[in-house]
Amino acid sequence: MELDIQRLIGERAKENVDLHAAHVNPQFAKVLRTIGFDKSWIRGQGPYLYDTDGREYLDMLSGYGMFNVGRNHPKVKKILSDFLAMDHASLVQMEAPITSGLLAEELKKRVPSSLDTVYFTNSGTESNETAIKFAHCATRRPRIVYCHHAFHGLTNGSLSINGEEFFRSGFSPLLPDCTPIALGDLAALNAELSRGDVAGFVLEPIQGKGVHVASDEFLRGAAECCRKHGTLFILDEVQTGFGRTGKLFAMEHSGVVPDVLLLSKALSGGYVPVGAVMTRREVFLKVFTSMERCVVHSSTFGQGAFAMVAGLAALSVLDEEKLVENAQRMGGLLFSGLEQLKERFELIQEVRGKGLMIGIEFGRPKSFTLRMGWDLAHKMSSSLFGQAIVIPLLADHAIVTQVSGHGIDVVKLIPPLVITERDVDRFLTAFEQVVEKAHHFPGPVWEVTSRLAKFALKR
Predict the structure, then answer these.
(1) pTM score
(2) Which of 110, 154, 294, 408 is deepest in the core (most CB within 10 A)?
(3) Is a pLDDT exceeding 80 seen at residue 456?
């Protein structure tokens, strides 16, 4: 029987969580049901999602920063459709693919000239794994330095430089010789690098977990420290890249130029997994030292033509629609509105980030009654309060958000860069109403906290 994919998905769309519970990840299915995220998504367009009941949701999560050009962008879709119609010969393997050459050429136009060589990967974590290997091979040194609270992926090498114990727990032994320092602690970095055995220092300009922003002074100091001690300066822009922070790359805010730049997520156009490692030719040639070693590091799908064309399409849309500039404008409006709410509501402790990568941190209130509710919730679980904000945003206002990490009170905003002033107003109005209710104890938000706490205790 011929597969009719449209009919199959249409008929069984509402079985999605049941199918995952039975065949994929039963624990995650339980989480979705508990927090009300057990939706059946049937369509995505730009910054909006639609469920099987036809309700429209504003997506302020964008697949953890993957949909910078929005979902199912018509120009990206057409370019990919046109390419599929070519029946192109992809992944011959013993070849020099035209599509990867074209994408590398376009990427190089957008970065400092010293980043003159591109290696393609399939994901952000693979880009980080590649950087670790390149650093070891190019410097012949054993150690990698990274930052507390960092997130560089969950494969074994990337996990070894993950700054969150929550993700590392249970997966030992990890790679040896990986040393953490505090983000912003230049003295600690210099102390580690001065030992002369550090191959690379890997960091995010803005940490995805918690949305902690590296200062311009720290980034410049770190780059200089790496140059001084012969350590590769590696910037992970998997999430901050391609317009997210109001610049094409976050490194532009401080003017630093890394030895290695790591990319992924939004380069995909939201369609095909793709990543890239951009580096100096000098570093590259210390890995690929001869014709015999020309494939000493490689990946079967690393230069897949469909992924390369998706990257070309995403870059084209970013340029044509001036989405980097829009991220800067819309981010400014969001920041301004959130700062005003911070002045009004004692639960909002800090608003931080750049462009359309924003963290809203909640903190222990001063009012006795609210403080009692806060302490009760955190006694039950350190992860409850953030969900008590996220859940009503979804259920009552049809806005998709999430917390920015396990056990922290930070709600993260990383919407598609195509959002409008209307979308910003929609979010700020809804967020104000949710936070207003959170300042009444007991009240609706605290009832959500209580329900989640009971689930946690039952588990």
Answers:
(1) 0.96
(2) 408
(3) no
Confidence of residue 378 (pLDDT cuts 50, 70, 90): confident
Topology at the third CATH level for domain 75-320: Aspartate Aminotransferase; domain 2 (3.40.640)
Indicate the Cα dihedral angle 10, 12, 17, 22, nearest 10°: -150
Of 394, 61, 59, 325, which Cα lies nearest the Cα of 208? Answer: 61
Token duo for residue 125:
């974590």
Q: Which backbone phi and psi does 455 adopt, to 5 degrees?
A: -65, -45
Residue 365 neighbours by CB distance under 10 Å: 21
Q: Report the alpha-carbon distance of residue 56 to residue 53 in Å, rounded.
A: 9
39-69+322-458 fold: Aspartate Aminotransferase, domain 1 (3.90.1150)
Domain residue ranges in the chain = 39-69+322-458, 75-320
Write the CB contacts of 198 (distance below 8 Å, at least 6 apart in sequence).
Answer: 141, 143, 144, 145, 179, 192, 229, 231
Q: Which residues pair with 362 in a beta bridge?
A: 348
**Dihedral sign of CA atoms 330, 336, 339, 345 in order:** negative
Tokens 């994901």 appear where? 123
